[in-house]
From TrEMBL:
It comes from Belliella kenyensis. PANTHER family: ENVELOPE BIOGENESIS FACTOR ELYC, INNER MEMBRANE PROTEIN, PROBABLE PERMEASE. This is YdcF family protein. InterPro entries: Cell_Envelope_Assoc, DUF218, Rossmann-like_a/b/a_fold. Gene3D superfamilies: HUPs (3.40.50.620). Residues 41-208 form the DUF218 domain.
Length: 218
């Protein structure tokens, strides 16, 4: 019982979980530091496919993947956008996530002709493989560098998968779970279930990247 209480206090501590997340997530990159890329590659996994509706897109946490891609486009940092992602583990959904994100981007003013969709991928490995197929079909030079846009906690695995299939990318992490450290009483002492959720995201990613290394995906 004592061990259980100690573990609960540790994993529910806001300061510790936030510190661990900050160690894992790459640093924020300012928009001004980004050069111009021909292609921005956006990974999906941020929409709520369980809610069936035909006239809008419901986002989970992670909408930064779409909104920051739009901002990069509007700032002239990326000239075209390739969105990769199908229905994931929810085959009941009639819409690929890539198409849902495209709808939002078009509404936000990105011309439809500047968006290319890959709507089959179900995981990060397939995101890289199927994106490679599209780039090869368009005869994009292998050495051309693209901007990879996905959640900060997921960037290491994503970058590894794209490197494995020889897609040359720089990274633009978004959708941060970590925040600036706070040294107040609530952060240091008050248990918080969201702290446990952060650990769950970390452990899930650590297991995922370990398995991807074992099977040779990264």
């Amino acid at each position: 019982m004592l061990s259980g209480i100690v573990l609960l206090l540790f994993f529910s501590n806001q300061f510790i979980s936030n510190w661990a997340m900050n160690q894992w997530e790459p640093d924020v990159k300012s928009f001004s530091s980004i050069p111009t890329y021909e292609w921005g590659i956006v990974l999906t996994g941020v929409t709520n496919l369980n809610k069936e509706v035909n006239d809008r897109t419901f986002f989970n946490k992670g909408a930064d993947r779409a909104t920051h891609a739009i901002q990069l486009y509007k700032l002239g940092k990326i000239k075209r956008i390739l969105i990769t992602g199908g229905v994931g583990l929810n085959p009941q959904s009639p819409f690929a996530e890539a198409a849902l994100l495209k709808n939002v981007m078009v509404i936000a003013g990105v011309p439809e002709e500047d968006i290319v969709l890959e709507g089959k991928a179900k995981n990060t490995r397939q995101n890289a493989l199927f994106t490679k197929e599209i780039l090869d079909q368009m005869q994009i030079p292998t050495g051309q560098k693209h901007l990879l846009i996905t959640s900060a906690f997921h960037m290491r695995r994503s970058k590894g998968c794209f490197d494995k299939v020889k897609i040359n990318t720089d990274t633009f992490p978004v959708d941060y779970y970590g925040h600036s450290n706070k040294y107040d009483i609530p952060s240091l002492l008050y248990p918080d279930p969201y702290a446990i959720f952060k650990w769950q995201k970390l452990f899930n990613e650590w297991v995922g990247i370990t398995m991807y290394k074992i099977v040779g995906y990264v």
